[in-house]
Design brief:
GO terms for molecular function: 5-hydroxymethyl-dUMP N-hydrolase activity; transferase activity. By secondary structure, the protein is of the alpha/beta class. Strands 2-1-3-4-5 form a five-stranded parallel β-sheet, with helices on both faces. Strand 4, helix 5 and strand 5 form a beta-alpha-beta unit. The longest helix has 24 residues. It is globular.
Length: 157
């Protein structure tokens, strides 16, 4: 079963450490084929934009790379069986929220993981943004408060 991981964890050094050192190995133990969006676009293309000096050429290169990243991620979501969304933060990451909505529109089952104890909901009736939570639950998926709980649920698929 192919599982796309929607997550902002690749943006920071600490996030990458947790993502690659703890999260991905735990999910692989659930017998899932992990589709890692952070690996879909060659790093040298991202560096080709990041290494340019500030100015119009850099902006244009980022636009090209951004479109490639977005296309790669959309195609990977279309081809996956399920989507796992990392919901930590004071608010769900906007890219993760978009991926959740896209997966829901494609009738994919979505699982959420929120190990963050801070409040992040629209009101006391939800765990995270009410629309994100709705898409996850309406897909037949669930939101889990620990990685152990999430991996246990994934093993039953």
């Amino acid at each position: 079963m192919n599982a796309y991981i929607a997550s902002p964890l690749g943006f920071s050094e600490a996030g990458r450490h947790y993502y690659h050192g703890i999260l991905i190995p735990a999910l692989r133990e659930s017998s899932l084929n992990i589709v890692d969006p952070w690996q879909l676009t060659p790093q040298h293309l991202i560096q080709s934009a990041a290494s340019l000096p500030t100015g119009p050429e850099r902006i244009e290169r980022w636009r090209e790379v951004n479109a490639l990243i977005a296309r790669n991620n959309a195609e990977a979501i279309r081809q996956c069986d399920i989507l796992i969304a990392i919901l930590d933060g004071t608010d769900v990451d906007s890219g993760t929220a978009a991926e959740v909505g896209y997966a829901f529109a494609l009738d994919k089952k979505i699982f959420g993981y929120r190990g963050d104890f801070r409040l992040s909901a629209d009101n006391e009736g939800s765990i995270v943004n009410l629309q994100v939570e709705y898409f996850i639950l309406a897909s037949g998926g669930t939101i889990h408060r620990s990685l152990a709980e999430l991996t246990q649920a994934l093993r039953t698929l």
